[in-house]
């Protein structure tokens, strides 16, 4: 092809057809420019196609991760509801000690010992600069704010954990309640709500000690009442934040699902 064009140029020059040669040269330049533009367009199309494939891969991973995050968050919300309910039952027992039932009391004491913490999967697309591949601005914004949103929940979780460790466990240890709580939970088998495998059951034979549970509750009413009331306050506030975070996860999953190719 190059030889062909060269031959035409040489023929025009040798025949003295300068005007035709100039027109031909201009045409050739235009063809070259068009060829370059086409090549650039093809290259841009290929790069864009690669980026969209990469975006789809990221979106699929994000959908999987945030589906798991939603599941974990729901488990922690449920645990906090059980904790606040158990705390309310304890307050009722303090007000009406004659109504105390040993097994129910031990269950409530166990629930107050929990500290459900939300520990979501974290994608590194922001750290490694891949956030730019996300073309949906709403998704990008939500991902950018994710760490800050999670912190709003975790901060109060940490405060509850610290309060519980400082004010609740000392009472359980001093009054020899932990042994009976452990016996109640483990003797009949316990399946943790947050276990990776929901079929896992923990069993261990522990003999209860002979302590008068109603008397202990009455003697430590001030401490237990304070812990139960604080548990209700903290975990109710945490769940308010958790529900707000849940709405954002659900919206994010809808946006991601909309942008995913399901071919």
From TrEMBL:
It comes from the Bacteria. The chain crosses the membrane at residues 21-42. Keywords: Membrane, Transmembrane, Transmembrane helix. InterPro entries: DUF6090 (IPR045749). This is Uncharacterized protein. It comes from Winogradskyella ouciana. The lineage of its organism: Bacteria, Pseudomonadati, Bacteroidota, Flavobacteriia, Flavobacteriales.
